[in-house]
Here is the input.
Amino acid sequence: MNEIIIARNLSKTLGNVKAVSSVSLDVKKGEFLAIQGSSGSGKTTLLSLLSGLDKTDSGEIKFVGEDITSMNEDDLALFRRKNVGIVFQYYNLIPTLNVLENIALPLFPESSSKEEMFEKATHAAESVGLAHRLNHYPNELSGGEQQRVAIARALINEPKVIFADEPTGNLDTETGRMIVDLLKSLNKEKGLTIVMVTHDDGLAKEADKLIKIKDGVVTNE
Amino acid sequence: MIGYALKELRKRNRKYLLNILVIGLVVVLLITLNSLGIAFKEASRLPFENIHSSIIVQRNGNVPENTSGAVTPCSLAPIKSEYLSQINKIDGVKGMSYGLFLWVFDKDSFKRTLGVNWNDDRGKIIGSELIEGSLPQSDTDALAEREYAQQHGLKLDQKVKVSGTDFTISGIVETSGKDVVSSDVYVNLSSAQSLAYNSKNLQDTEKFNRNDINIIFVDADQTKVKEVTDNLKALFSSPTSNGGKTPTGQTTGAYSIYTPESFESQISSLFLMSDRLILTVSLVALIGAVLIVIKSMSHTLMERRKEFGIMKAVGFRSKDIQREVAAETLLQAIIGYSLGVAMSLVAIFALAKTTVSIAIPWEMSPYPHFLTSNPNLIAPVQTYPFPIKFEAVYSAEVLIAVFALSLLTVLVLMRYINGLNAMEVLRYE
Ligand SMILES: Nc1ncnc2c1ncn2[C@@H]1O[C@H](COP(=O)(O)OP(=O)(O)OP(=O)(O)O)[C@@H](O)[C@H]1O
Ligand SMILES: [Mg+2]
Here is the structure.
């Protein structure tokens, strides 16, 4: 069984917009998948369904063999905690926590030992090249650095899949490329499965596989 | 978990500090004001504490024609002894003492003279202040007050003339400053009654029967003081003789009934406080605090909406976040409350160092106006340490209130957190 996510006939209406319409797709283990589409095409909505952040109106998602469409909110949260890492366009770091604590955030509810928690976080920080910034606060970091903190946070719980929604959307081209390179190296070296949303053709080409979406409907594949 | 809450407290210190200060301030206000309220009531009882009774009955009378012999002061006109048995029948009356207080204008000196029933509570208390000698054994024995004895060079076993009658000083007592009604000479009640009965000046001013007295101390059950007072007021409602006003503004013939309440207004005005003011300030403080805390809380929530969303996105369940927020809120409440209690302790400690001065109404312990050359002789003002205490019970009640309010806040926060959609986090900028 090579598929880590099997999505069938996903639909989601937001307000009166059919944001995702009968989408079916597979994500293979170790794959770097890009979802590309213009603004408003439903990329973010699709990502939220695949990652278990939002519930589908109809359709089915099998994620590492589990049917996440039938889970309640708490179970979904636990599922995300265990299997999912998320990277956002606007980093979404907590301004009152420093780098180390932001990275460790997903571990807080488990409340294992503090040393273990921060050891893991330090490790994750090293893997994104931020070992020297552990005690800084988000507002003291550049956009690229903040996004690397976010990636480290997504890595901390050793997820099966990392979802990234326009991770370079708020960065200049060069920094954006470095972030994509980082994601790619995580994919290649650690075998992490990555699902990245972008509207950028150039970045989309970096992926192993590309899914194009328009008006909530998959147009290739 | 708590570690995170503590850290949050530190980071968001300005906002949380405000919450903590507000809670502390309200706690201090509630505890201190109400301790003050209780202390006022205590203080107003102080003048009565030494006399072991809670109500004093007197009658207003006429001013003596001239200053000779034994007379009754105009605030202590004779009261018929028949009233005594009637007072005894009132429900809630535990005991009763009475006496006859006279002004005696002798050639050599003026002396306040109190006829005492040595077997009643008042008599026993006066007797317990004996510092030399013994209680009067016969109707011609008398006790002298220490200060008066000193001033007039009176010694034990010496003779002293009171309204033309010779008395032998059998003992010295020290009562000045300890008693609401102070006297210079204490004699048996029957001796005083004889002096009064035989005083032409007194008989001309007031009709005096053999067994009349002019001051009654009623010891009422603490819980029934109000009812007993009402009953006494009914018993003594009608003035026994019509007339004008006494020099102190009372209606001649009317009875005066003094209770601790008579001093309450005096003491509260001393602190510019009344029960109603305390209640108002407490309520305003409480409402103000609730508003400030709610406002700061909702402000914090708006700010933290994003934070909670992020937490949900990375795998916090609602209850994981709720636990955090509950810990933070309760921590603020606990710190605020402790701060408030600490400040209250300091405030109450400082207040306990102060004193209250209570002016004893002239009517209660009269002294001739024209003889007040030595103000020490009369003690119209008695000074007591302010009887304020840290009310543990009250602070426990405040704790419960603070706790209840924080629980309410926590519930509101929990609902709010439950309603947050993790999905929204993807659309945050
Ligand atoms: N809360 C909402 N209520 C109504 N319509 C919504 C809501 N959120 C999104 N939409 C609509 O759903 C459609 C898909 O939105 P979505 O955010 O998934 O697009 P997107 O591809 O991520 O766009 P972008 O590249 O701008 O991020 C859009 O037309 C959007 O306007
Ligand atoms: Mg989007």
